[in-house]
Design goal:
Order of helices and strands: HHHHHEEEE
Number of domains: 1
CATH architecture: Roll
Oligomer: single chain
Number of helices: 5
Largest sheet: 4 strands, antiparallel
CATH topology: Nuclear Transport Factor 2, Chain: A
Helix content: 25-40%
Distance between the termini: 25 Å
Structural class: alpha+beta
Radius of gyration: 15 Å
Strand content: 25-35%
Number of strands: 4
Length: 140
Amino acid sequence: MRFRPASLLMALVAGVLLATGCASGGSKGEALQRAQYAWSAAIRWGDFEGAWNLVDPEYREQNPMSELELERYRHIQVSHYRDGAAQTTGDTVVRDIDIGVVNRHTMAERSLRYRETWRYDPEARSWWITGGLPDFWRGE
């Protein structure tokens, strides 16, 4: 997989934020807010390689992303990312997201909803998104 400088920067920032949260002894809630902020920033700015680093390592291992899949993400631009209702159950948080997507070639915009599921990893003291990157092509 190719990494662009912006991707490396976003991954580094996300790593520093997560590591800082672990070192400071912050609460799980604060760590979740930092992880969700890093995730939403990566998605908003089109840094899908950086967002991929915030996906649960078990998921990444079982579902490696091909260069072709990554290339599809380069053909879109996220126009808005709005988080909605969230539900917490133990070490799992589910929140609904409204996201706008623009096809870079046709400039057609559409909105879709998807659901994020976050899981807390007590060993890593990190929150991971469990379902991979958003599927912007569902139904197409």
